[in-house]
Amino acid sequence: MLPQAPDDTDRLYLDNAATSFPKAPGVYEAMLDYGRRIGASPGRGAYAESRQGSAVILRCRERLARLLDAETPDRIVFTLNTTDALNTAIQGLVAHHRRTRPGAPIRIITSAMDHNSVLRPLNMLRRDGVSWCALPADPATGLIDPADFARAINPETALVALVHASNVTGCIQPIDHVGRLCREQGVPFLVDAAQSLGHVPINVRECGIDLLAFPGHKGLLGPLGTGGLYIRPGVEGLIDPYRQGGTGSQSEQDTHPDVMPSRYECGSHNTVGIAGLSRAVEWILEHGVASLRAHETELINAMLAGLEGLAPLGYRLIGSAPSTCRVATFSVTHDTISPHELAMEMERRDGLLVRAGIHCAPRAHETMGTIDRGGGARISFGAFNTLEHVHRTLACLEAIGRDLAIPVRSAAR
Ligand SMILES: Cc1ncc(COP(=O)(O)O)c(C=O)c1O
Questions:
Q1: What was the pLDDT predicted at 2?
Q2: Which CATH number does the domain 8-24+288-412 belong to among 1.25.40.10, 1.10.760.10, 3.40.50.2000, 3.90.1150.10?
Q3: In angstroms, what is the span from residue 121 Cα to ligand 1's centroid?
Q4: Buried b / exposed e across 40-75, counting CB within 10 Å, b at 16+?
Q5: Whose Cα sits closest to atom 16 in ligand 1?
Q6: Which protein residue has the closest C-alpha to ligand 1 atom 7?
Q7: Interval 71-88: pLDDT, tens
Q8: Assigned CATH for 27-287
Q9: pTM
């Protein structure tokens, strides 16, 4: 008889790499409070509620600046998500080059582990004469070799863009090393921290980061629809803003203000979302990313040990980076069923919610040899998952693996 589907309360969300769930304590309350009690658009009026809204936004910038060790809060630009932040940086840098050095070649370096939110803008820009290359990663671990970056940088290099933690293998790239190289060569360095901020400590100054794109809605445990871009002082001189509009400031001018962060922010803010994000970042600062990382490391170690034991049942973990070099994102394949079938079976049997497929990272799956198998089934744990959740996941995989093994054994007899 087939196992019964669990009832709704037994469902376990394991897709924190897409967006974290649940969010940090107090996030939903902060959003509701803003919506119900304040409501106004910041910077749009001199009345108290609009000023309160501006204070909410400033407090969130201050907290984010503290988290990243950014120079000042105005270095943090709010965006819709990581993709929006990456586009602001990449498209703005190319526009600046074109405007200030017409006809000069523009070359951008990224890695094979990067996400479509970098690869697709670069491919669109290629049609307009921008050249770019994706440096390879080790097919066993998914890690890049900084020496490849050192060799690839040349006088035409306008930008190095590198994903910090892979959303496929979970491996963490050595951004401090690449950051140092870029600083030595005078090349701007853009980090995609979609899968790392909130999971591992990031100090933008120590890592030589010029631009850091991040989501508010993943590891920072804030709501969907939030994100940001850190811009090192002076680097805004290399990034043209690619949209203009109302800012609520300098309204007598019909040209967009040049000051940070308004230079890159226009239109009404997602203030309800930012109120939630602010509470989430406050919670993260209270707990410390190092202690969240210590908890995540326990989950990673348990998961790595468990998956190793499941190898005889036909499972393969995509990417073998050790726990010191990875976040708690694991993509697995099975010898006899597709990633989609595996993910569906995990939900049907045990209410485990995981994401199957290519995860918007086609070159990462090409590198890891999983593109032709339809990618992997990605299990991504978050700050509120426990060892019990890891054991439940492993038990589910084991049960599926055992059931799949039975017909194979009887056929062999
Ligand atoms: C590595 C990486 N970069 C960028 C993104 C895009 O993030 P967002 O959904 O915040 O735009 C993701 C989303 O999963 C990601 O995993």
A1: 36
A2: 3.90.1150.10
A3: 13
A4: bbbbbeeeeebebbbebbebbbbbbbebbebeebbb
A5: 167
A6: 82
A7: 999 999 999 999 999 999
A8: 3.40.640.10
A9: 0.96
